[in-house]
UniProtKB/TrEMBL annotation:
Name used for this protein in its record: Sugar-binding protein
Matching InterPro entries: Bact_solute-bind_prot3, Solute-binding_3/MltF_N
GO biological process entries: amino acid transport
Keywords, ordered alphabetically: Signal, Transport
Originating organism: Streptacidiphilus pinicola
Domain of life: Bacteria
Length: 318
């Protein structure tokens, strides 16, 4: 598989130096395990996922189709490669194994399933690592065919890209040092330095909070881990699924109990690429019904969270 990006050294402790190559990133990490229960926080402000109340129907998605006659699918077939925008800084989801050097994780398993279904070979994929705030531009410019990168599906983003059916449910959580006095998205964050990834729903969530903190935006969630280890930020807000991966890399941290919202991950494609979205939905349908989703979850997510999981129910209404 072909990859592009800026490289970080593998290890339990993230490092601050990076080799810049075209603004993209790939990384590796090793980790211990941790357990966290994503229950809603009691007695604190609960908000909806940023962008999820903008008048669109988030459950509506194009019906699955195995047809490969559409222009977008045909373009991939003619090229002989699926170009996928991914994350390689997120342990469990998309990361470089420090022993094998392979890029792997829950999202990477899904990318390989897409390549297998469309091109007949899981290796016929170019993995292009994109920062959080470059996911939409990468699709709009045609740099990638799909983005499979813990990408939250919301109404604001539906105006810019198209989405498959949702394949994972999560919610924002707060990661802090074990001795932290931060208890949630409440007065305990007042004046504190809070790290979020640029262009993330966590960034939008923090910006709409009534509690004024010092926002510290970074390219990727892994950078937040670095800053926390250096004592340069007091907390990180990110998806619970990503927070678990960060916590697994540093046991001196903890996840504040409770989720701040409810969010869903989906595969993103260029706006209007409905033939590709329909083909992806067909792949997701068989990926889930055939047990591959659950096998991937058991391999990557459950050992760290300690929780059973199931994919969201798809609703094909358009």
């Amino acid at each position: 598989m072909k990859t592009f990006g800026w490289l970080r050294r593998p290890g339990v402790w993230a490092v601050t130096s990076a080799l810049l190559l075209g603004g993209f990133a790939f990384a590796g990490s090793s980790a211990a395990e941790t357990n966290t229960a994503p229950t809603r926080q009691a007695g604190v402000q609960i908000v909806r996922a940023p962008g999820d109340s903008g008048g669109c129907d988030l459950q509506a998605t194009v019906a699955p189709s195995t047809s490969e006659s559409g222009l977008d699918v045909q373009r991939i077939i003619a090229r002989g490669k699926l170009v996928a925008g991914i994350d390689t800084n997120s342990y469990l989801w998309g990361f470089r194994d420090p022993n094998s050097g392979d890029i792997q994780g829950f999202d990477i398993d899904l990318v390989r399933a897409l390549a297998t279904a469309i091109l007949g070979d899981p290796s016929k994929v170019t993995l292009l690592a994109v920062p959080t705030d470059q996911r939409i531009p990468a699709l709009q410019s045609g740099l990638v065919d799909v983005v499979v990168r813990t990408f939250t599906h919301n109404c604001d983003r539906e105006k810019q890209v198209s989405f498959s059916a949702d394949y994972f449910q999560t919610g924002q959580q707060i990661l802090v040092p074990k001795n932290s006095q931060v208890t949630g998205l409440n007065s305990s964050i007042q004046g504190r330095r809070i790290c979020t990834a640029k262009g993330s729903t966590a960034e939008a969530l923090l910006q709409t909070s009534q509690y004024k903190s010092q926002e510290v935006p970074v390219e990727n969630q892994l950078d937040c881990l670095v800053l926390m280890q250096l004592g340069q930020v007091d907390a990180t807000i990110t998806d619970g699924a990503l927070a678990a991966g960060l916590n697994a890399q540093d046991k001196s941290l903890k996840i504040v109990p409770g989720t701040l919202d409810t969010e869903f991950y989906a595969v993103a494609v260029k706006l209007g690429a409905t033939d590709l979205a329909a083909r992806i939905n067909a792949v997701l349908q068989s990926y889930i019904s055939g047990g591959d989703w659950q096998r991937s979850y058991q391999k990557w997510i459950r050992p760290t969270t300690g929780q059973d999981g199931a994919p969201p129910t798809a609703h094909y209404t358009r």
